[in-house]
Design brief:
Elements (H helix, E strand, L loop, with lengths): L8 E13 L1 H11 L1 H6 L5 H17 L4 E6 L2 E7 L8 H24 L14 E16 L2 E5 L1 H8 L5 H5 L4 E5 H6 L8 E5 L7 E7 L2
């Protein structure tokens, strides 16, 4: 007999993805260049530990304004449910800017002590950080003992990682903020560029892009 799954709870929430650009290519390059070290060594290459440190600094800087939901490979998925005192306005932008600044600072520190200068490892400086911020309805559901966030708006923020911002701004770090998030969180749009993104089976998404330098 199949047991009925416990009912979930619904909430309104800010949904944030912080994604490390170049992560996959960098680690694959390190693996190819140091294949014997990756396979045979008792400890992984220092590049792997450095990437873990970068993810850790992202999470630490976003807290407590945003709560970690899960790590998704090269991305941090975090949320800020609507509640008194939750992140709003310019404070949301300050949080993203501070997170990017901490990320860059950690990259600079890594580059100053990086010992390997092979073509793959030297690409560490090409890593950067981008954000996608959305707001909407979220269903919180327990699945296999873990809390999962489900719903169309969760799907939307993930789909927005594939976008046309590079065609608009070039290869620059950025925060892509949907108009739904701008309105719900009362975020000022000064210095942002409007953009629309279209995906199959969902309405066109209006958003704004904030360059992060």
């Amino acid at each position: 007999m199949i047991q009925e799954r416990p009912a979930g709870s619904r909430t309104r929430s800010a949904l944030l993805l912080a994604d490390i650009s170049g992560y996959t290519g960098f680690l694959q390059g390190v693996a190819d260049a140091h294949r014997a070290l990756v396979i045979e060594a008792d400890e992984p290459p220092r590049a792997y530990a450095m990437m873990s440190t970068l993810l850790d600094v992202i999470i630490t800087t976003l807290e407590p304004r945003f709560r970690l939901v899960k790590l998704e490979g090269d991305a941090v998925f975090a949320t800020a449910p609507d509640a008194p005192g939750s992140v709003r306005g310019a404070d949301a932008l300050d949080c993203l800017r501070a997170c990017h600044a901490s990320f860059v600072e950690r990259l600079v520190d890594a580059g100053s002590i990086w010992s390997c200068q092979c073509d793959s490892c030297s690409r560490v400086g090409s890593l950067d950080l981008k954000f996608v911020l959305h707001h909407g309805d979220v269903m919180v559901q327990r699945i296999a003992g873990s809390e999962e966030l489900l719903g169309p708006d969760v799907n939307t923020v993930h789909r927005l990682l594939k976008n046309h911002v590079r065609e608009l701004l070039g290869a620059r770090p950025y925060a892509l903020i949907t108009d739904a998030a701008l309105e719900a969180l009362a975020i000022p749009d000064e210095g942002m560029t409007p953009i629309t993104e279209t995906y199959d089976q969902i309405p066109t998404i209006a958003a704004h892009v904030l360059p992060l330098e």
